[in-house]
């Protein structure tokens, strides 16, 4: 089960409140695209995709590549960069694609590897890593037309890095194309907003609205609870998280605050953390160095054995 809700809210004030921050540092950059790209590994190491493999993921489009920043694990950070070609309204409209690829940046000669395709061809979509390590795909359209809201893809899809498969979930209330955003909230829902504009002019297709998406994991039972967690942690430090649910915690992860615009989350990072369970607490080990976790604000999530995430505790690294 999953639910969408479109509240009557001021999305500008909401965005200012919920972490649309902009940072100068760029983490493991993965641009999603299936054609007309060039890749360049800018520094050694491996991007870590969704907490399962040292992979990056690419989801196919035709000319405009939707991108996201993914985390790293236990190795030097790699940067995977692809040239992006924008689609102007006066250009020939091209069809989107469903294809998806992963790339293991830890290999001596990394190569894109094709995996199962999405159900829907998309351009201008946004990918959001969730606290359980899966990735939510929202928005986009069947062509590169940036304001064709009538044809926009409303069903969302979920990528599983463990099975490398896609699952189609519920549908959004509004079309989300160019200039749309999606970002993970501290309560593990996803805020989806905006879209429908190409340049600075107000258009009838503008989406001055937002909606919250509640992923299926919020309907699998009670949440684990974080009673307390440090507001500041240091690289390589062990720290204690107080929780009455220590015995049923399956994973702990840091997720960097979002920096999202133009279907690109430029700060997205998922960092699974090693931990041991005690009586009413977890002893957790912070990332070893800044190549793995750049300094900044993070959300700390606990996920239980049913796959249900906690409400995040905010911390600064």
Offer a few descriptive terms.
317 residues; mainly beta; Immunoglobulin-like; 2 domains; 4-stranded antiparallel beta sheet; globular
What can you tell me about this protein's structure?
By secondary structure, the protein is mainly beta. 2% of the residues lie in helices and 36% in strands. The two termini are 35 Å apart. The protein has one helix at residues 11-17, and strands spanning 3-5, 28-32, 39-41, 56-59, 66-70, 80-82, 100-103, 112-115, 123-129, 135-141, 155-160, 165-171, 180-184, 190-194, 210-214, 238-242, 249-256, 260-261, 264-265, 270-273, 275-277, 281-285, 297-304, 313-316.
Assign the structural class, choosing from mainly alpha, mainly beta, alpha/beta, alpha+beta, or little secondary structure.
mainly beta
Q: Residue ranges: pLDDT <50 for 5 or more in a row?
A: 6-86
User: Radius of gyration over alpha carbons?
Assistant: 19 Å
Overall pLDDT: 77
SSE pattern: EHEEEEEEEEEEEEEEEEEEEEEEE
Q: Could you describe the largest sheet, including whether it forms a barrel? A: 4 strands, antiparallel
Number of helices: 1
Q: What is the percent of helical residues?
A: under 10%
Query: How many DSSP-defined strands?
Result: 24
Silhouette? globular
Distance between the termini: 35 Å
What is the strand arrangement across the widest sheet?
Answer: 1-15-14-13
User: Beta-sheet strand percentage?
Assistant: 35-45%
Provide the domain count.
Answer: 2
